[in-house]
Amino acid sequence: xxxxxxxxxxxxxxxxxxxxxxxxxxxxxxxxxxxxxxxxxxxxxxxxxxxxxxxxxxxxxxxxxxxxxxxxxxxxxxxxxxxxxxxxxxxxxxxxxxxxxxxxxxxxxxxxxxxxxxxxxxxxxxxxxxxxxxxxxxxxxxxxxxxxxxxxxxxxxxxxxxxxxxxxxxxxxxxxxxxxxxxxxxxxxxxxxxxxxxxxxxxxxxxxxxxxxxxxxxxxxxxxxxxxxxxxxxxxxxxxxxxxxxxxxxxxxxxxxxxxxxxxxxxxxxxxxxxxxxxxxxxxxxxxxxxxxx
Amino acid sequence: xxxxxxxxxxxxxxxxxxxxxxxxxxxxxxxxxxxxxxxxxxxxxxxxxxxxxxxxxxxxxxxxxxxxxxxxxxxxxxxxxxxxxxxxxxxxxxxxxxxxxxxxxxxxxxxxxxxxxxxxxxxxxxxxxxxxxxxxxxxxxxxxxxxxxxxxxxxxxxxxxxxxxxxxxxxxxxxxxxxxxxxxxxxxxxxxxxxxxxxxxxxxxxxxxxxxxxxxxxxxxxxxxxxxxxxxxxxxxxxxxxxxxxxxxxxxxxxxxxxxxxxxxxxxxxxxxxxxxxxxxxxxxxxxxxxxxxxxxxxxxxxxxxxxxxxxxxxxxxx
Amino acid sequence: xxxxxxxxxxxxxxxxxxxxxxxxxxxxxxxxxxxxxxxxxxxxxxxxxxxxxxxxxxxxxxxxxxxxxxxxxxxxxxxxxxxxxxxxxxxxxx
Lengths: 294, 319, 94
Prior knowledge:
The complex is a heterotrimer.
Chain A (H helix, E strand, L loop, with lengths): L30 H23 L8 H28 L15 H7 L19 H22 L5 H29 L3 H14 L3 H4 L4 H8 L10 H14 L26 H10 L1 H5 L6
Helix pairs in contact in A: 1-2, 2-3, 2-5, 4-5, 4-6, 4-9
Chain B lengths: L2 H16 L12 H20 L1 H5 L8 H26 L5 H9 L17 H18 L8 H29 L3 H20 L11 H6 L7 H19 L9 E3 L4 E3 L5 H11 L3 H14 L1 H23 L1
Antiparallel strand pairs in B: 1-2
Helix pairs in contact in B: 2-4, 4-7, 6-7, 6-8, 6-10
Chain C lengths: L6 E7 L6 E8 L3 H12 L7 E6 L12 H4 L23
Antiparallel strand pairs in C: 1-2, 1-3
């Protein structure tokens, strides 16, 4: 890891995100599978971060501009580490670039993969909507991610374990931030209550996908490397129910079972159209200069 | 007001300045001093906030994860800087809300530079290098400005701003080591930003009627032309090191003066931009207005929630 | 709607063993939000281990001199005696 608590984003010299970290694969773990798993968690963080960063200069007040940017920076840091771990675990997962291209593996993964190759859940993809919808989505996402990372600190892959340990502290704050806003808006004015309720309703259908287990997650969970999302369903539902109670929005219900998502989802590369649009924008400069140095 | 007391206060105020001491919020100060400070600090704060936009537009398209984070952190800093400066203005008895209203109504200004477009990703580097470089020239002397809260805000701003300029220079340097296309991007961006950067120091001293008084009050520490000259002298060797050309055929070292001679920018263009007729002026204000108005229901909700919680606590206390 | 969140003053303990020092101010709807905003705004470069916030209108200030009460404008609104951070020796010149 980068050593101390200092935010790596503030450095200006190029630093290999995994410099000094032993990236040897744990016994019996397939590099391709580990890379696939890192892409799932990394893509979740990258896309969620990108959306939150869109709030920059658009937030309800300057203080919130700063707060949302902090959250986006935390998630971007996690994404960078996870994509670097994926590239190290399976160099074959990295999209091919022109010979001599200086683009590092994590950037090749972020900027030269098409939507079909992204592995994020659909929850993080849609356009932001209003502030009510954004905090509803963040509540859902951070609650789920915190439950996953809290278990991932015991991963047999020391790199994943270290990334999770750093992430737990960050995401606990994200969850708290979102929960406070949901409660504040729900108990603020009639208008804010209407809006946050609409936001929660817009986000809710995506929760079913968070409870599903992809075969890669199942196999790596058995190997002690990954977390099976099925194992965190009860915890996530419990936390969300608690927030909804505080918000006096019990009627939305935790909907533990949720609407079943049929067929393949984001983890299989089947995404909402919003992701393709997001990536078209995010990747435009990098792809125009495949041999570029940044 | 009693004239004798008034003179006494004026004398104390001037004695404080003469000692090189700072004026603090609860001190007596002349009305004009207060008004000049509010105008300057507000303009400065507005510049930070409006300045989030031209670069912020590239956060979604930054071509590496490291650059994406750096840029987001930088634009976030600008929100913080605006916030520090609005706070300094609040010690003078004005509120952030009032100042924002004045900005949106076009009654207060922001730096002319942010009325220019940023059509190229290289502009992120150029803004860091030239625009933040010019801003630092302006701002470092303000750390010693006579009004305490303003000076302290500037110390904090300058401390953080050095990262901004360095990341910009480093981005351009890296791009200059990349492909031919990237080098062309850098040169094109520098060509566009050179003249607007020179304008950032304001009109020539002869046309800057407030300068003398602001300097006498210690609000301003250097004249526009002195700062502009300093900026040019600083930038020339940096440009050489980068391998870019500054787009001024009249730019030459003058041995006798010990400074570079250079062609002044188009002052009519600056006047137009300051009037609000810059290429992106309307767009910048519209963006700010939209964010402010879209956020109103959230700010209102948080106040309503706080009032309710307060009432609940009071109710419990009464029982 | 022009409702403004109240102003808070922020004090940060830079590290263990030091006093909380006034670093600036910010707006928040309530005390809890003020602490959280202070964390985001004033400690994003790891500048602190502990934060105090207090509503600016709850601060009672001594007057810098005896004439002050008569002439300080809007004395109830202009409350601060901010000190921000100590001046660093390395304020960058470039």
